[in-house]
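User: My advisor asked me to double-check a structure prediction for Alanine dehydrogenase before group meeting. I don't want to rely on an old file, so could you generate it fresh from this sequence?
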Amino acid sequence: MIIGVPKEIKNNENRVALTPAGVSELRKHGHTVYVQATAGEGSGFPDEEYVAAGATMLPTIEEVYGIAEMIMKVKEPIAVEYDLIRENQLLFTYFHFASSEELTRAMIAKGAVCLAYETVEKSDRSLPLLVPMSEVAGRMAVQEGAKYLEKPLKGRGILLGGVPGVKPARVLVLGGGIVGTQAAKMAAGLGAHVILMDISLARLRYLSDIMPENVDTIMSNEYNIREEIKHADLIIGAVLIPGAKAPHLITRDMLKLMRPGTVLVDVAVDQGGCIETCSPTTHENPTFIIDDVVHYCVANMPGAVPYTSTLALTNATLPYALQLANKGWQQACRDNAELKAGLNVVEGKVVYKGVADAFSLPLVPVAELLEQEETV
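Assistant: Sure, here is a fresh prediction for Alanine dehydrogenase from the sequence you gave:
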């Protein structure tokens, strides 16, 4: 198979979809890899390392899209890339379709095969291609939140861990999944008093067992959230419904319950956000203020630490990319239910329920589509 790796062009996105080591593995299996020049520089991988691993470098993004059968990316295509995508071309990347009707309709119109990292799902309901970036984002949420609590950045002027004789900051984490767990660990490690909320009592029991003493677990519901936000200095939204839009756990009217300088970090913003007043921002302009509350809503947080993020992402995606390249997407998805769950939009049809529901689009059963492909 011919694999193309374009340079990411989303604002301040420095990650790349494939490391030189990944190129080497694909080449060992007989595949051809084209990488856009300087695509890996932001992550610390110069062109020379890709060439040494067996890649062919192309100067423009148009050439990469034009030659590749499978495009490997990190973030969803943006508007200037839509016209570069060909019918039946396989795109393997993060899409988060449910948060963007424009992107969804563009991919339907192009007739591409869109296999989304974030909905590849194991039998135990875990999301193996979302986990590494969720781990990075959860840890970064505390790092960024601690920074924006500083007074010059319009925060409350509180040191997250406090000092002897002074109480530490109070951190509220909404969601006890991968993001929330990592955020709670980081905040607790820095000495903050952490409140971790989730709707699953079984999950709360588990978290209560593994978390340090400065982490309290509380059942998530509207009443408890309204009570806790009154006292929180940093609030981290870490809610995920795979492939679907995140629910608003904090609404606009709740901001008046918060103290001036409270910081909100919505890690779910690329799935529509779990804080109603959040809208996507960039690393260039990461925050805005509503009702004296600081909102940090960067949609590609791991892009700020691209070396770590690229290595973590490639470790997770490469085994799946090899299956797609070795077998073709149809056979790979027939053989592997995890990959089949990643199919969101296929040749103009929506095949993932969360995406169809988000925009009231017709849903085509993916199994039916794969059976049809087999007879072609």
